Amino acid sequence: MKKFRKVLDGLTTSSPGGTMGSPSCGSAAGTPTAAPTPREIDVQETLVSENFQLCKTVRHGFPYQPTALAFDPVQKILAIGSRSGGVRILGRPGVDCFCQHESGAAVLQLQFLINEGALVTACADDTLHLWNLRQRRPAVLHSLKFNRERITFCHLPFQSKWLYVGTERGNTHIVNIESFILSGYVIMWNKAIELSTKTHPGPVVHLSDSPKDEGKLLIGFESGTVVQWDLRVKKADFRIYYDEAIHSVGWHHEGKQFMCSHSDGSLTMWNLRNTTKPFQVTFPHGKIQKDGRKESCKPILKVEYKTCRNSEPFIIFSGGLSYDKAGRRPTLTIMHGKAITVLEMDYPIVEFMALCETPYNNEVQEPYAVVVLLEKDLIVVDLTQSNFPVFENPYPMDIHESPVTCTAYFAECPPDIIPILYSIGAKHKKTGYSQKEWPIAGGTWTLGSHTYPEIIITGHADGSIKFWDASAITLQMLYKLKTSKAFEKPKQGEGRAAELVEEDPFAVQMVSWCPQSRIFCVVGISAHIILYRFSKYDANTQIVSLEVRLQCESEDVISPSENENNPCFTESGSHSPQPHQQHPPSPGSRTPEGNKDSIPCLKVKDRMVRVPPGYQAELVIQLLWVDGEPPQQITSLDVNSAYGLLAFGNCNGLAVVDYMQKTILLCVSTLDLYGAADPYQRLTRSPRRNRQSTSGSIHLWHPSTHTLLVTMCYHSSSSSSKSRENSFSRSRSSSVSSIDRDTKEAITTLQFGESYGRKNDAVPTPCLWVGTSLGVVLLIPMSIPTDQEERMEEPVTIGPSGAVLMLKGSILRFSFLDCMGALLQSPYEVWRDPNAPEDPDRPRKRKLVHFSPSSSQDTCGDGHLAVVCSERQAKVFLMPSQSCLFVHNITESSFVLRADVVSVSNSVCLACFCANGHVMTLSLPSLRPLMDINYLPLTDMRIARTFCFTNGGQALYLSSPTEIQRITYSQEMCDNLQEMLGELFTPIETPEAQNRGFLKGFFGGNANTFDREELFGEAAAGKASRSLAQHIPGQGGMEGMKVAASGVVGDLARARIALDERGQRLGELEERTALMMTSAETFSKHAHEVNEKKKKMF
Fold this sequence. Notes:
The chain is mainly β.
């Protein structure tokens, strides 16, 4: 606990230079600024560095660029590997774990140690890793790096501790899973094939043990050669040479025949009794042409051959379609008896796998589902129904259904909002799914005690908005909103939006949501804003459209001296401009010079429309084309339900709209916001002297509206399109423009709230805080009628600009604290359904909730603290005196991308994310550094665009185009994270093998007598060459397992570890005893021989 006492200046007014908060008032971290005053305040700051720790919590979404798939049929968990070295392990909803290989090498193959709580990964850097899944956060136990050969295929037989590893050279090595040491037993390619063969058989593409005899290993080479290798006698039983390259092999469970898929689209069936040629060759999708030849087909990349007790076997394969059908989608074919079903997929198939009832490969397989991993989706097909329906996926795998363009994160939401959104969204769910339960149901997960309502909102390139329930570190879609429905579909040839944005004219750039009032605003890339209200009832409505002209040439800007005697703002609401509700001119309407003018980019629906329950569009605001130039994108937005006002800005200026009366209150350039108080000496530029002069750009005061329709900057066509492209990939504010900033001044952040517009104000009034890209903060006071009837009839008046404050860098965030350091929320209107039936006895009234700074200032009088954060600096001001109390220079070498004032551990702090990857927290109000961790370098603009903080010490960002990564910077949440995560491993008895019967066991070979240890152990096979592979112990070794084995399976895991250790020691003792006995027998034998020789000599 640290107490800060600071003498504050609350009475005297400073000179204009002092109010700018220049850096001279302090530059060190949390440096207080001296200001003589007659009174003081006490702020007891409770946050210390020990309250903060940064760690990843959970990753949601579809694994980006997947490469491999595996399934544990006993534990019923699924693993997916990716090109970036990530592994996602999925079980029942809530059981979702992400692991990352440190090397970042692509995952080639995954192999579960079935029902053992372990996973083997083979990566593109030719390294094998063994992961321990008996802890909530899996860790690598061992790694084995191959130095001279490249890994191409792995196979781990059920209940075996020996892993077969095929390589690019055609050799097969054997690895002990327990010690992760290479055996000296090697199947060399030149031993596997006949000596007379002159060509190399190619890389190993398949390895499997015979279901009939585990001592027989089937090796498939890429060239078409298949060898069955007898592991005991170390020679080939048979060799098959086929003309077409092999892609995969599938056994019949009896082990008497197998099936191969080939590069020419054929399937071949081979019987072990006669391996000279296949007894069946089929081209499932190859038709016979008129000349009698088969049409050429694409390769069948994988085939699975699964038997059933009561029906024909399933033959499932991917690929194999004929080449002549161009543009056909990727397919999965299911052959069941004579029936052939072709399932078309939306994306290319990466891998598929049939899920079977038994883990034993020598039993009837009984497949019940097939998991299909696509490039951008995961689907599971129900094989138990003849129409093969898909299961409804319980995981949020469709975040990227349309590319994510912005995110918002809300913790501690009103508890009723999630059930309401879910009930509305459930009405629009797809149907036709399988009625059976999701088959990937492994692991355990319980709702932790540290949960509260959380919502994540994602905006997408197609204009859709998705609301997600993010409570308890899970993610479930609640509700989807399509903003494009507010507009007419562009007709062929019109292309107004196409000229502005080649694709995705409805793409969402930012959202603003008030969970209490349920007012929702969306900013789109076509310089449009849509305001939505929430209703539980459907309605017939007509969307009101407002059009705002906010663009001009810089040579026409009125200088402050010319404009000095003119009012800068609307003084009387009776002259508020009327909304432009007329329909926009057609796209062909142009000025005499042939340029577009005064038309929006999109056309709003101008008829009554039936809208379903949920969010219903009420108002659309669009910026207009001016003189053939498209409007600049909107860079900032704020909406306040208590005031009924919406403010937005871009690089040209600021506009304020009264959405209750549907009127434009203010539309003014950035330069004209200052009036005579402009802190910068600006020179007007004319970047377009070579352009033809236009007659449609006269800028003047409209006598009927007193609204200035002027702006200060202008883009040429080329720079406009480039700026638009860059802005689309930027963060919510235009702070990223530090990378490519030009001289224009944009409105970068806006905030409504109760504050003091001028230094001599005695009581707080509604104000709009405006921040610009040049580090200037402006306060605009407003007068809003309080009575409900007056609010709908009387105008809102906006006064001249009050304070002018300055910081280094573009302004990112405003927040307000009372003088005790508690966060002051913006006032809001309590939600009421706009379409609910009217009760004549109880007329509905607006219920407003205010958080006035004066209401909690009994001890220290009126006033509040304003926290302002820019790209490089944070400052705390005392209002209304505008004294700068504390300053902290956040960064000199980089810049802040995102900043928010958030609640952590029953207090508040300022959280910042910098472009150099640092995540920082600062105390409030003293701005002491509490945490500074180099977490995540800014590798692409996606992270900058989507990173956001929220209360409770949480944050998120888009880690890939398809995945959301959530993190926490709270020590308390890090401590509770183990409790919140699901258990991947649950103790389950391994199903017993079926009784094969006396005759089958007698005549079925000696599979049960096969002892791999006897063949592959060091005693029999010797040691492998040290240069061939290098063993790397993992950080999660036996000691790590001891520490991490906790929770439900902790005792069992610890007991198992102890037994393993004891068994290992007993095994070592037994080996030593055996060696001693062997050496004693050898010595006795030699002694006996020597004795016999001596007798013969004498």
